[in-house]
Amino acid sequence: MKAWNWYAAPLIAAAITGLTAGCAAGSGHGALSSLSRPEGTLVTVAALPAADLAGLYVAQDDGFFARQGLRVKIEKIASSAAVIAEQEQGEVDITAGSYVAYIAAQAAGARFRILAEASALQPDTRVLVIPADSAIRTITDLIGKKIGVNGTNSIGTLLISALLAEHGISPAKVTFVTDTGGFPAMPAELADGAWAAAFLAEPYVTIAGEDYGERELADLDQGATQGFPIDGYIATQAWAKDHPQTAAAFVRAIEEGQSAADTSRSSVEKAMAESDRLPPEVTALMSLPDYPVGPVDEARIQRTAVAMLQFGLLGAQYTAQVQQGTLVKSMIGT
């Protein structure tokens, strides 16, 4: 076991891309032009409280949304799956969270659009954690055990299933248990013995170690899931069609936030400290993911769909859509 060192719609897409490029070329620093004013100024974003979405929090903290004429209201959620129904009913404009729930919904007939990417795995950013006094020493020791995750059939389920498979273990030999409180509640639940292990994202990986002495059993950035796409910024296709200028303004601001998060750790630490009320001993130690910048990478998102099919998070009836790439294409407008 690794010892943990706690110190150490094509038109919509084209419109968004064109508006982003035009603004950057003509206005400088993403300044709002008279030809690209959003249809509405208030945008509600449902987001996981995780370092994966630092681009969002940096954009809010540094005024990038305001510069685009937007007021963004961020609502914290436990998982993407928990808010899909509200988003389809128009109660949420954009969700910042895992692709997994949205790909499953798209396959089942929903219509979503990935506006921008948020994060991809880097070492120690999504981790399988065990209690301080756990007798578990290897992945094989998880057989027959309960593993806490923040969402049912989520990115956690997918990443852990891939880890188990690489060790010759069927995912059916463990029991995934969803904690409706999400990542903020999970370190304490693990310490109280709710499960044998827990799937955590930063900064809660660091919090688990700092506050409870919990240990890393496995970094999920390895093998088939190394560099795996995790989160994105997603709207319904209906919302994107009705609010093309708002969507474009949001993407421009997010691109600035992503770029800042990718190049300035201090910006991430400051934004995460303010959004989640985190102390400096946590923000200084947390590991950070990759923050993609630029157009949505179809091949990257396709990795998620293929893995979902492989591990049963998508039914066999969707095999052709996944293998031909049409399912992912329907979400990015290419």
In words, what does this structure look like?
It is a single chain. This protein is an alpha/beta fold. The chain has two domains: 10-121 and 227-332, Periplasmic binding protein-like II (D-Maltodextrin-Binding Protein, domain 2), CATH 3.40.190; 126-225, Periplasmic binding protein-like II (D-Maltodextrin-Binding Protein, domain 2, 3-Layer(aba) Sandwich). 41% of the residues lie in helices and 17% in strands. Strands 2-1-3-10-4 form a five-stranded mixed beta sheet, sandwiched between helices. Helix 6 links the parallel strand 6 and strand 7. Helix 1 (10-26) crosses helix 10 (244-263) and helix 5 packs across helix 13. The longest helix is centred in the C-terminal third of the chain and has 20 residues, at 244-263. It is globular and about 60 Å long. The chain starts with 9 loop residues before the first helix and ends with a helix.
- Can you list the strand order of the major beta sheet? 2-1-3-10-4
Number of helices: 15
CATH architecture of the largest domain: 3-Layer(aba) Sandwich
Termini Cα gap:
43 Å
Number of domains: 2
Our estimate of the beta-strand percent is: 15-25%
Give me the Rg, rounded.
19 Å
Q: What are the segments in which pLDDT stays under 50 over at least 5 consecutive residues?
A: 1-29
Element-level helix/strand string: HEHHEHEHEEEHEHEHEEHHHHHHH
Q: Write down the CATH topology of the largest domain.
A: D-Maltodextrin-Binding Protein, domain 2
- The CATH fourth-level homologous superfamily of the largest domain: Periplasmic binding protein-like II
Overall residue-averaged pLDDT value: 90
Largest sheet, described in full? 5 strands, mixed
The portion of residues assigned to helices is 40-55%
Number of strands: 10
